[in-house]
Design a protein that fits this description.
By secondary structure, the protein is mainly alpha-helical. Helix content is 60%, strand content 5%. It is elongated.
Length: 495
């Protein structure tokens, strides 16, 4: 009876082996499920991986194909723009000197022969004057570049040699060669009467104003005039020596007492009415003025962030835009007032003369000044008005074109001003005559007339500078609105 019951219980309940197998199978399935869950990231994990920083790739990676093409296009376009800019704008600087040799004749030199034409030296046969005029006139037909010699009758100057000096001082000519009324008479008297006081340099004069344009004089005018003097002296010396030696009525003792009347016989006295000195004056009328342009240009980037605080609404209401424009203009003009003073004080600190008295226009004088003790104030005001005319133009252009194009504007502004201010426009192609209306040309001219008491056109110079100020002041509000429109447009794009 016992064994059948036991057999029935065994059939109805699972065996121990089957129970162990089922539990092992469940553990294996659970392990596989857990491993699968670990291999497959959740949606949150996938989102986190996508939001993370991308891994760097190589230059030729296929993911960079589009951006690489865009970069190549922008690089090529920028290089082309800069290359064209270089060819166009920098050519303005080279071209100003391109026709110098052809235009040297535009540097007028008066030749005025007073020899034997003014009482009491009339009646004799002039010898010095004809040699001088014949030599200069023969140079006009020479194929080589030459100065513009212009022979003028003494009557044009009322037979007064000092009137020729005044004409040169008034910029009617770059220089003048004057044969004095007694040139031949004094030479003849020296050999006839053994006049030991005879000075050959009293026969002729060369008159010029170096401070008008020291580079043009040193490079083109004075070297040719020096060669001309040597040529005239040599030609006249040969003719005069032959004439004297053939004249047996002249005692040989006289020639021994006045050898200078035989050789060199004649010479040329130099009358530089306004020498260019001291050397420290050079930056004040040339290279130093480049920094005046640069200072006026960079004031925009220095001051604009300060002004923009009025338009921000951090802790205060923003300023009305018309009031902001008025403030910016006034603040800019005030800044130029002090910056130009600092610039002008450099010249004072390095002892450029500012306290000399004026001098007669027909006499040689070093640094005479037309305004006496007020010369520095006039010099400062020239720099101040000049800085406004240069700076407001930079402000307007910078607001309109923005970065990085403002750097190209600065190059253009410097080159066009320098090429028409530091080089004689008389030697430049006529196309450059627009330079007479450019700001720096008038700053240079006004500064020279103030520091050296040159022929003054300061009224014209300041008038042109004020025209620049008025035009740029009128454009200033419009450019401010353009800047605001551009700023708002960039904010919209960033949002």
């Amino acid at each position: 009876m016992a064994s059948p019951k036991a057999g029935q219980r065994s059939d109805q309940s699972p065996s121990s082996d089957e129970t162990v197998g089922d539990h092992a199978s469940d553990r294996t399935d659970n392990a596989r499920l857990q491993e699968g869950e670990q291999e497959k990231p959740t949606e949150d994990e996938e989102k986190g991986q996508k939001d993370g920083p991308p891994q760097p790739v190589g230059f030729f990676h296929k993911a960079l194909n589009k951006v690489r093409l865009d970069v190549f296009k922008l690089w090529a376009r920028t290089t082309l723009i800069l290359a064209v800019f270089i060819l166009l704008v920098l050519s303005l600087y080279w071209a100003v000197l391109f026709r110098v040799e052809d235009n040297t004749s535009s540097l007028t030199v008066f030749v005025v022969d007073f020899d034997g034409r003014v009482p009491p030296f009339t009646g004799g046969t002039p010898l010095v004057g004809p040699i001088v005029t014949q030599t200069t006139e023969s140079m006009l037909s020479a194929p080589e570049p030459h100065l513009g010699y212009d022979t003028i009758q003494p009557s044009v100057f009322n037979n007064d040699p000092l009137a020729v000096r005044q004409a040169v001082f008034d910029w009617k000519a770059y220089a003048a060669i004057v044969v004095m009324p007694n040139a031949t008479a004094m030479l003849q008297q020296a050999v006839d009467q053994a006049n030991t006081t005879y000075d050959p340099l009293g026969a002729c004069q060369v008159i010029y104003v170096q401070a008008r344009d020291q580079d043009t004089y040193s490079s083109y005018i004075l070297p040719e005039l020096s060669a001309l003097e040597t040529q005239i002296t040599s030609k006249f010396g040969q003719m005069w020596t032959r004439t004297v030696m053939q004249n047996t009525s002249i005692p040989r003792e006289n020639l021994q007492q006045v050898p200078q009347a035989l050789s060199p016989a004649i010479g040329f006295s130099q009358f530089n009415l306004r020498p260019f000195r001291p050397a420290v004056t050079t930056p004040a009328v040339t290279i130093g003025l480049i920094y005046l342009i640069i200072l006026s240009f960079f004031s925009f980037s220095f001051y604009l962030p300060i002004h923009m605080q009025f338009l921000s609404s951090e802790g205060h209401p923003p300023m009305k835009f018309p009031s902001f424009i008025a403030w910016r203009w006034c603040a800019t003009i005030a800044a130029y007032f002090f910056l130009s003073l600092a610039y002008s004080l450099i010249s004072l600190a390095f002892q450029i003369p500012f306290n000399n008295h004026s001098a007669p226009t027909t006499e040689v004088a070093n640094n005479p000044e037309p305004y006496g003790k007020g010369t520095f104030v006039v010099y400062w005001m020239i720099n101040y008005i000049g800085m406004i005319s240069l700076g407001l133009a930079c402000e307007n252009v910078a607001m309109v074109i923005g970065q990085p194009w403002t750097a190209m504007w600065l190059i253009f502004w410097v080159i066009t001003n320098v090429s028409t201010s530091f080089y004689s426009l008389d030697l430049a192609p006529k196309w450059y005559y627009w330079g007479y209306a450019w700001p720096l040309h008038n700053i240079v001219e006004a500064s020279r007339s103030t520091l050296f008491q040159l022929h003054s056109r300061i009224g014209l110079n300041l008038g042109i500078l004020f025209v620049w100020v008025f035009i740029n002041t009128a454009l200033f509000p419009l450019c401010c609105y353009v800047l605001r429109w551009k700023t708002q447009k960039e904010k919209q794009k960033s949002q």
